[in-house]
Amino acid sequence: VQLQASGGGLVQPGGSLRLSCAASGFTLDYYGISWFRQAPGKEREIVSCISRSAGSAYSYYTDSVKGRFTISRDKNKSVLQMNNLKPEDTAVYYCATVPIIAGCPGDSSGYIYWGQGTLVTVSS
Fold it and tell me: Cα(89)–Cα(121) distance, rounded to whole angstroms?
């Protein structure tokens, strides 16, 4: 049972990256999926989340990425499409799963499975 995050790299400001989080050994059907990031010297923060309540899907974005990032999911994978990247987006990005009943908590302690992290560097 594991999550595999990929897609990070070096990109210039204004560029785009597509992060993927693939699940193996279990299905994502019963989990919400969040992307966190941690910049050097800063605490880990939630960036985006996609979950489901009463049969309807919903997503969450932290204010700083609204309009630039888009989260999606299918049965076994989540994708975070990041456009118009800024230097302040530089961080290690992690995907993580939480039981759907929990919604999209910003507190990382409730998350069960974590990907290994993928580094995103935005620099000219």
Answer: 8
Q: Is 105 helix (H, G, I), strand (E, B) or coil?
A: coil
Q: What are 100's two structure tokens? A: 């759907």
Cα distances (angstroms) measured from residue 97 to each of 25, 34, 67, 81, 82: 13, 6, 23, 18, 20
Q: 48, 59 in Cβ contact below 8 A? A: yes
| Residue type at position 89 | D
Cβ pair 2, 113 in contact under 8 A: yes
CB 31, CB 50: distance < 8 Å: no
Any idea how long the chain is? 124
What is the average pLDDT across 53-73?
Answer: 92
What's the pLDDT tens digit per position in 19-58?
Answer: 999 999 888 888 999 999 999 999 999 999 999 877 788 8
> 118-122 and 9-11: which strand pairing?
parallel
Alpha carbon distances (Å) from 39 to 47, 54, 68: 12, 35, 18
How many Å apart are CA 66 and CA 70, to the nearest integer?
8
- Band (94; pLDDT cuts 50, 70, 90): very high
